[in-house]
């Protein structure tokens, strides 16, 4: 009898524990084991340098281990429009092909904006429980401290930073084509101080929203915080989802996962499909292409831009299907190297996983937005002024002499230079007045000259009262105008450089002495290779681009 009572008591306690487990809040159960899924398989090679913007995540991917007996209570989201930013959506033929792939996989063809409540309410399937990310940079869900394809060792103190307006790699060399520096982040970075991140010169972020199929416990637990902070502070951002998809059904679910989390958000950078997990290595190139196409077409149909993230080796050997040549898909290349060796066109280079940024404890992936599309045939990527021309072109401050001609050696006029400053100030509206006899109404430079005169940046010629719009501007005149402009913008202009090292220092006019010493002191002017300042020589367009980029980057950052 005693044994029977004990058995009944144990049975009763077991039932109570089961009921308690079922009623346990989702947030409590979800914390029990959040490690990203993936099975053990041979790790893949990561690309060399293409995205020196450290696309390799420095922390373990999270994948909740939830037992089949656990029920995940999740609210069903209402249908809503996803984002205002339109992107090029593939044509009817492509959509038909995608629909066929989904039909063949018996995937529900309904609206992506409708939650699949049944899937949201059920526990994670047994085959996905306890999975952990394994790839060239993860092992059993843990970020590798020394990834297979890590950055080359370097003692250069300013690696991945701006020096005189140009981003430098870990060997102390300029990164050709790098126009903006960003980071990619996930829960692994913990609570980020985004105000410090922005102040440290970070221009964009790519944020992990989640991983795998559309289950709430596979959301990145820091997603909402990270995206809301970027929106609050005006930091442009994109999104990525770590994929485990081995078929188009899973790809569809992963797209729904991303879209659920994107509701109410409007990223200015693409939504990236992170293809790296070892579970997908042995899939055929054709199937990888089908999986990517289902994901990207589904995301694009809701108005978002899309892209693919992979390392250099994957781009070269795994992602060889023709679908990856779709010009509407952005390419994000990871290669921890001093340069990115990807031969095709790409938009972002992840260059290292060992970046240091204020506001983030520990390491973080560093990325660079790359520009390979200058329309000018007379600006070679190896030119000393390439980065400056690219910067001014991307910023909209300088245009070419023609659609395919920049004219690097052409001298720049006073009207052209004043127009550059006007654009840098946001082109404020100003009414016409006959301030200068030689500045009529209706010219491309009219508003720029009147604005610059009004704020005290330019004064014109005292002896004639003219502005001289077509006169070429000299280097010392440019320095003087920039000096005044810096004061107008509220920058500290007290720094002074030493002109004694320049052989022609005596040629600097009295009116330009302070301005030239300031420009040398802050690094806007560094002199010519022959040790001269050439203060009275006309400035050419290439030198102007370099000086203006240095002004923008040195004083702002």
From TrEMBL:
Entries under PROSITE patterns matching the protein: GLYCOSYL_HYDROL_F25_2, SLH
Region (Disordered): 30-101, 117-139
Record keyword Signal present: yes
Occurrences of domain SLH (ranges): 372-431, 432-496, 499-557
Compositional bias annotation for Polar residues: 70-81
Signal peptide: 1-30
Coiled-coil residues: none
Biased composition (Acidic residues): 50-61, 82-96
Signal found in the keyword field: yes
The protein's name in its UniProt record: S-layer homology domain-containing protein
Lineage: Bacteria, Bacillati, Bacillota, Clostridia, Lachnospirales
